[in-house]
Amino acid sequence: MTNGTESERERNKRRYQRALFDGIAERYEAARPGYPAHVVDSVVAAAGLGPGAAVLEVGCGTGQLTERLARPGFRVTAIDIGASMIAAARRRVTSEDVSFQVTSFEDLDAADASFGLLISSAAFHWVDPEIAFTKSARLLRPGGWLALLGAEEHYDDPLGAALDVLWAAHGDTGGAWERRPSAPEAVAATGLFGAPSCLTDSQEVILPAGDITALESTRATFLSWPQDAQRHFADELRQLLEPQPAVRLTRHTSVTMAQVLRDHD
């Protein structure tokens, strides 16, 4: 995918892979980390949001970010294509100020200029590229903000290098967005937003080896493999982890924010 376009193969792969997470909602909720509170606080502060502000969360998953957005008293609309994901999010977040919808961003029915903040965590790359930014700009009120969050785990070597080899050995390690530009580049190229600003955060953590196996089995690439391939990968990963009951890794969180231009229409 380059400059907001994709081949038919890339589109089919992306749409197929984005639907896979709903089948592992419970595992996803247990294995995937949430976002640091201070990172979310920085987004809220940069967007200048006050109590009652309207926020749209695209791809809410099991509600980890939704839970943090609900605390300042925002009116949050949280959407996801997975019914099981939304069910888990509803169990986590019971605030009356949060409305959940099982829908894609492409199919979301919302009035223009409805939201002060449109936020998406590790999900915006699943949206059709020809719609992602144009619809975002249309749904944001004048002066509203787009915030794209991402997260990556980097394992200390030798495990990190060995895991890279393991993924490569099983093939097709690139996601549907393999050739996508970085978030700041993609936002800037639209001409719909002001200059993007970026925030990064890193935290070192130590996890039990079993948690690593669970985490890596929530990747879209893993989920797209046949059951036998998934089992072989998991077995080989467990063998890699046998010598170390706990694993040190660094979690990197990135935020790209940009304010919609008033004259984007």
Number of helices: 11
Low-confidence stretches: none
Global outline: globular
Radius of gyration, in Å, reads: 19 Å
The major pleated sheet works out as: 7 strands, mixed
Helix content: 25-40%
Which structural class do you get from the secondary structure elements?
Answer: alpha/beta
Kindly state the number of beta strands.
7
Can you give keywords for this protein?
265 residues; alpha/beta; 11 helices; 7 strands
Structural description of this entry:
The protein has 265 residues and is of the alpha/beta class. Helices cover 39% and strands 25% of the residues. It has a seven-stranded mixed β-sheet with strand order 3-2-1-4-5-7-6, with helices on both faces. Helix 6 links the parallel strand 4 and strand 5. Helix 7 packs antiparallel against helix 11. The chain starts with 7 loop residues before the first helix and ends in a 6-residue tail after the last strand.
Please give a quick description of this structure:
The protein has helices at residues 8-18, 25-31, 37-47, 64-70, 83-92, 129-139, 159-170, 183-190, 209-216, 220-223, 227-241, and strands at residues 54-58, 75-80, 98-102, 115-121, 140-155, 197-208, 246-259.
Draw up the topology in text.
Layout: H1 8-18, H2 25-31, H3 37-47, E1 54-58, H4 64-70, E2 75-80, H5 83-92, E3 98-102, E4 115-121, H6 129-139, E5 140-155, H7 159-170, H8 183-190, E6 197-208, H9 209-216, H10 220-223, H11 227-241, E7 246-259
Parallel strand pairs: 1-2, 1-4, 2-3, 4-5
Antiparallel strand pairs: 5-7, 6-7
Helix pairs in contact: 2-9, 7-11
